[in-house]
Amino acid sequence: MPVRRIPFAKQFSAHADSIKASLVVAVAVSLAAAFASTPAFAADNLVSAMPWWGWPLALFVVCFALGIVAVPAGVGGGVLFVPIVGGFFPFHLDFVRGGGLMVALASALAASPGLLRLGLANLRLALPLSLLVAASQIGGAMMGLVLPAAVVQTALGLIILGIVVLMWTAKKSEIPGVQKADPISAALRINGIFHDTAHGKDVEWMVNRTPVALITFVIIGVLAGMFGLGAGWANVPTLNLMMGVPLKVAAGSSSLILSMTSSAAWVYINQGAILPIIVVPSIIGMMIGARIGVRLLRVVKASAIRRMVIIMLLIAGLRALLKGLGIWA
Asked: DSSP letters along 99-153, please?
């Protein structure tokens, strides 16, 4: 007798409320730990008295929470990791930026197979864009390593605050509905069909304005390599608003692009800016959290996750800016 299989969405919906509650608690605990660990909120002797294993454990907890929210928000792990860890942990920014690229790669690799399996990422869309981002990241990484740390910290704070404004003001479209593909996307056959669980129907999509998007992704790659942010913070708005990719496919394809754009990490490795004590617990926490984030992408409203991410980035961006200006050591 054949066994009746229950659809994944129905299996998971029963646990959605508890997972969302756990998500809020995890993020709150992580932010509280980050604030408590910084000298601005704790005595200097508390930071110096932290045992050697305390910082890796704190990194694991923080990155686990960041991995959960990064995939549904479509921003990648690096854009959250660099400002938060760089602002609230006592590590040099070069090591944090190198770790951020590795973390962004790890979270994307953990999420990409599930996204492809669920039809929420498109390989034809991601491949040409990944090539441009990977090539331009190398130049950005080399520029970032020769600049003084204070300049990079200040610029990082400004970039993060700019990302907050972009995420807050951008009017995203769940299903843009492009009527006609441009010649380049038609030649590359960049199109697809995904099942929209919110409306219970299959949606056919195609893209336009591909030449402008290709230039945009070169700029995104330079900034990603310079600040170790990954490229997820700009991938989703570009894919959704400029090219007309449905929002969930844009978020999923963004993670797929991140999984194939790790070229800047080699520059940081060659310069000795990758520390295992920072990278290993961060990657483990991020990969575990990203697997939960893939499931949340189907059942949780992206807008709710994005609001949470905006608040986190606003705090971290202000902290990075003030730290770079020497106002908040």
From this structure: HHHHHHHHHHHHHHHHHHHTT---HHHHHHHHHHHHHHHHHHHHHHHHS-HHHHH
Is 0.90 surpassed by the pTM of this model?
Answer: no
Tell me how far apart the alpha carbons of residues 84 and 200 are, in angstroms, rounded to a whole number.
Answer: 38
User: Which range marks the domain in which residue 51 is found?
Assistant: 8-324
Report the distance separating Cα 97 and Cα 87, nearest Å.
12
The predicted-structure confidence for 36-67, as pLDDT tens digits, reads as follows 344 433 334 445 567 778 888 989 998 888 88
Residue 1 located in a structural domain: no
- Does residue 256 sit within a domain? yes
CB–CB of 107/125 below 8 Å? no
Per-residue pLDDT at 275 exceeds 80: yes
Structure tokens at 38: 């910084």
